[in-house]
Amino acid sequence: MPLQYDPEWHALAGPKLKAQGEVLPLHDVETRRLRYEQLFVSSTYTFPDNIEVNVHDTPPAEDGHQVQMYQVSKKDGRKAGEQTPAVLHIHGGGFISVHAKDVLPSLVSYVVESGIPFFSVDYRWAPEHPFPAPVEDCFKALQYLHSQADTLGIDPSRIAVMGESAGGGIAAGLAILARDRHISPPLAKQILLYPMLDDRTVTDASGGLAVFSVNDVITGWTAYVGDDRGTDKVSPAASPARVTDVTGLPPLYLDVGQLDLFLGEDVDYAYKFLNAGIQTELHVYPGVIHAFQRWAHSSHVVKQAFVNRLRAIVTLAQ
Question: For the chain, what is the domain count?
């Protein structure tokens, strides 16, 4: 039987899928930026009264660049002197687009339900700032959380990194850098949602049902690693699927839709952790595509994915 969309999800997502339009040409970064902006940006969202947003800037790097982070937390969410877990969040956007402020609404439910603050990194985009700039921006953000832990009221031993799509790939790369650079205390967990992990992916096994296309994948990776894409010159910190030894990496939560181009690379990545004896939770959701929660918020599969992701976050507080 051929692959097919989850019926309930597709009934809700169908109109948006039709509006997505044609597959864009290779390396058309600017048109993709406009398309992704339409998918992510909301001009009507109002934050709940019990949520506050604060902005933090890291100290200037050698080139003068300061990394900005948006902290989303519950008002009066902790007692005086208490240190809470924290999530360092890295948004998606194909390595080439989306600002952290645009994805903050998607983080609110996690913060409300868990009570754990999120710090979303506004990293620089490729191709203007290719690898290693985006992952190094996120590394600077992690260092900031460590150095300012007392001021922020967070426990540096209970910091997770979480990312979606390209942000999931950067998050996995950050976990590799943090291990190799001996960040102490180490990251407590990595939570990767349909992560973009392998610059060598050039095929679509979805039977033509995927929406994030091979052209999109090649465009993103070329922007991020340039002409090295697909060669052995690419670092595992850029393309985490290339890592050969996962020893010392933090416990892994990973989920992906079965109609996602990243299915194979994501499942293979999770198996590396399973085979290494690292605590791993893997979910594959039949009948849904890349970033499936953005297309049909009220579907059962999206609600179930939220429950599983929230549980992975809440374990930081246990």
Answer: 1
